[in-house]
Write the structure tokens for this entry.
Amino acid sequence: MSNLHDSTAKHAKVLWSTESIRLRPESFQARFDELYRSAEGPATLWHLGGAASDYLRVHPGSIQVPEGLIEALLKSPIVDGRIIGRKLANRCSFDAERTLSSILDALNSGHESEICGGLFELWNLLERDTVAPMIHHEGLFCALANLTRAKDAYVRDSASRLFDRLKA
């Protein structure tokens, strides 16, 4: 899985469509599993992750996503792949500590889109009942405090609101 352009990516991209969201869960799962088994690179994993994330947004809990896909996306060389990995981690109720760790990576990444995605997924993570005890993480407070001084208004305002919510 070394190059970003692999031959299975075009097939996975077809699954990441509005038409695929209308598939019955069994049909979507079968297509997803076949493509996942034959995935050749990070682009395919990114498209599969996007397809699964969008499908789960419309049909929560209806399909199984391998933890290996989530882990691979969180380590992806493609920024958008990492963003999708965090979405999947939250949608699949992936381990909260590992999800928080990946969110911290995003908040400290320096990539604006990854930071914005990390802030959004932190809001989603806070909606889970099981994270309350572990969310008061010093690294998280530092990252949010730094982002309250960001040039981008969305980043600055979101970080400020999250910081205030966590301090309450």
About this structure: Residues 1-94 form one domain. DSSP finds ten helices and no strands in the chain.
